[in-house]
């Protein structure tokens, strides 16, 4: 076709477009940002519930934009209307708000590069495709489903690449008259890319995470606009990333295989290339088979984001975990730097895992525990209360009734270089600190004990009634227990007992254990003296009495 004919064809196919490519180029000018600012986007398709992998990808978009003082925006990629689910979009924005992964602009946020939902941008895509038709880089293809299926079958039998390319692309060189005739006959068509590529050529490409990737040049006439003239994802995302001035496309590595096409689209559309960072999926060791597989919403509770919310994982702790899997050196840095926040760390693509990032439950718990250990007792109290108000109202009332005590218990062993690490999630507080609440202690009593060992009540009663002084320092208190131990035939240290066990009934630790068991119902607890101080003598004696009636 001559240039004139191509123009005629473009007008035949798009007679009513209000604006052309140039208009949109001017409408969305370059962003006024410094050179090293990153513009990232989270481009979810509302086709299912959000999972941890999606959240991770949005988290990466956020941190890289934030640390470079750039822009992180949300774009809804709803080109596949058939796969949309009810409430899918609200679910996405709800999750971003709920997990505090907040874009600076985008769908449901403000911004000057919108609309940020692809289904609201159809005319924009059409204007660019019209331009491609004029340039001879796209064409209408009238092939029926049946014809295409026949080609597919033939290709499968001959074990050649599936798709419309080379001699399969029969409508590539239709004349203007042939097109007009088909249009007059009301034949349906899609618009295909007239791929200028040759698969014998190799393209070398540098991914920010994966490094050099080589692939054969794209040579398939991929569909750009579907029969209803709405775009395919491939076309839409390229135009959007260009017009919204994305600098870094951070997305799951299931998209690596589409790179040849995306690379070519950017070239033929004459767009400045973006940088790509393809993130490896979050994997897990399958309990049954022992093999490493992708995290699955069906099999792994922690794949779905509800798990974190309902399980009482603090948002900030989840952020810490996402940061841990984002950069391999983050965890060590965080554990070393007591007073630092995620924002103080510099993330780099080089430190992102190239293969799968494995979900490690132990690591996850450890990060959560570290998070809690750095919170004051008061902070833990109020955050737990908030959580309980939503998910466990009965416990929320208990917390409110016992506020002062609870804060004191939650504050035990918080000072010092190695604060206590006992809680990994809000729901652990109820369990871990059940002894802090009289009513819960009474109900639960000694169910946490793993032995049938019987402790000497009279000895403990004698100690508490006649020797326990709560108005001293921890050290003075312990010296007092030692004296008491010694006066009652117990060694004053485990070592002394070990060396001459025949001389003693036990050692000072056994007496402490007896007290601990009677007043907390468990063998392990935070610092015993601190617990006793908060309880006071009367409550301690009450509990010993409960033990004697157990
Ligand atoms: N809409 C695509 C998805 O949900 C995202 C692809 C991209 O980020 O380029 O998987």
Helix amount, in percent? 40-55%
Which ligands are bound? glutamic acid
| Mean of pLDDT | 95
Largest sheet report: 3 strands, parallel
- β-strand number: 15
**Poorly predicted segments:** none
Lateral strand order in the biggest sheet: 1-2-3
- The tally of helices reads 23
**What fraction strand?**
5-15%
Termini separation: 96 Å
Give an overview in words.
The protein is mainly α and about 550 residues long. About 45% of the residues lie in helices and about 10% in strands. The chain has 23 helices and 15 strands. It has helices spanning about 5-15, 20-25, 50-65, 90-100, 120-135, 145-155, 175-185, 235-245, 260-270, 305-310, 315-325, 330-335, 360-375, 375-390, 395-400, 405-410, 425-430, 440-445, 455-465, 475-485, 495-500, 510-520, 530-550; strands spanning about 40, 70-75, 105, 140, 190-195, 200-205, 210-215, 225, 250, 275-280, 280-285, 290-295, 355-360, 490, 505. The strands form six sheets. Strands 1-2-3 form a three-stranded parallel β-sheet. Strand 9, helix 9 and strand 10 form a beta-alpha-beta unit. Helix 8 (about 235-245) crosses helix 9 (about 260-270). The protein is elongated. It starts with a helix and ends with a helix. The model has no long low-confidence stretch (mean pLDDT about 95). Glutamic acid (GLU) binds near residues 43 and 251. Glutamic acid binds near residues 44, 77 and 251.
């Amino acid at each position: 076709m001559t240039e004139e004919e191509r123009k005629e064809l473009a007008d035949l196919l798009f007679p009513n477009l209000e604006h052309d490519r140039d208009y949109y180029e001017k409408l969305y000018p370059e962003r006024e940002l410094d050179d090293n600012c990153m513009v990232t986007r989270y481009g979810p398709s509302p086709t299912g519930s959000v999972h941890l992998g999606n959240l991770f990808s949005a988290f990466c978009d956020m941190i890289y934009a934030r640390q470079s003082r750039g822009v992180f925006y949300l774009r809804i990629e709803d080109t596949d209307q058939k796969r949309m689910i009810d409430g899918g979009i609200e679910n996405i924005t709800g999750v971003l708000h709920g997990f505090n992964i907040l874009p600076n602009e985008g769908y449901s946020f403000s911004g000057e590069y919108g609309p940020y939902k692809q289904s609201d941008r159809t005319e924009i895509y059409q204007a660019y495709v019209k331009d491609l038709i004029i340039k001879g880089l796209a064409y209408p293809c009238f092939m029926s489903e049946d014809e295409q299926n026949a080609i597919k079958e033939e290709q499968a039998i001959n074990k050649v690449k599936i798709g419309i390319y080379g001699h399969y692309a029969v409508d590539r060189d239709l004349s203007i008259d042939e097109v007009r005739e088909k249009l007059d006959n009301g034949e349906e068509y899609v618009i295909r890319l007239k791929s200028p590529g040759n698969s014998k050529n190799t393209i070398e490409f540098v991914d920010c995470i994966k490094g050099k990737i080589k692939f054969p040049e794209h040579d398939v006439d991929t569909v750009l606009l579907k029969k209803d003239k709405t775009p395919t994802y491939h076309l839409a995302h390229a135009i959007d990333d260009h017009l919204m001035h994305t600098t870094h496309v951070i997305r799951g590595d299931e998209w690596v295989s589409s790179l040849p096409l995306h690379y070519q689209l950017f070239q033929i559309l004459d767009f400045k290339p973006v940088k790509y960072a393809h993130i490896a999926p979050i994997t897990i060791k399958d309990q049954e088979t022992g093999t490493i597989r992708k995290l699955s919403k069906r099999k792994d509770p922690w794949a779905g984001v509800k798990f974190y919310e309902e399980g009482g994982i603090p948002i900030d702790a989840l952020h810490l975990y996402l940061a841990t899997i984002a950069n391999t050196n983050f965890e060590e840095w965080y554990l070393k730097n007591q007073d630092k926040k995620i924002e103080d760390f510099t993330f780099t693509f080089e430190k992102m895992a190239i293969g799968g990032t494995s979900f490690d439950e132990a690591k996850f718990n450890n990060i959560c525990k570290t998070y809690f250990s750095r919170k004051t007792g008061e902070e833990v109290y109020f955050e737990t209360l908030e959580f309980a108000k939503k998910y466990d109202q009965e416990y929320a009332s208990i917390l409110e009734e016992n506020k002062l005590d609870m804060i004191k218990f939650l504050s035990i062993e918080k000072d010092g270089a190695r604060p206590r690490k006992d809680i990994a999630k809000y729901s652990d507080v109820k369990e871990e600190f059940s002894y802090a609440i009289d009513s819960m202690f009474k109900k639960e009593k000694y169910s946490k004990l793993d032995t049938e060992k019987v402790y000497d009540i009279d000895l403990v009663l004698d100690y508490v009634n006649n020797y326990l002084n709560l108005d001293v320092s921890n050290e003075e208190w312990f010296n007092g227990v030692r004296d008491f131990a010694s006066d009652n035939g117990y060694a004053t240290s485990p070592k002394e007992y070990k060396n001459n066990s025949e001389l003693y009934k036990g050692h000072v630790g056994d007496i402490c254990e007896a007290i601990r068991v009677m007043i907390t119902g468990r063998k392990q607890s935070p610092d015993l003296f601190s617990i006793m101080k908060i309880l006071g003598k009367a409550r301690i004696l009450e509990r010993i009495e409960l033990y004697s009636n157990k």
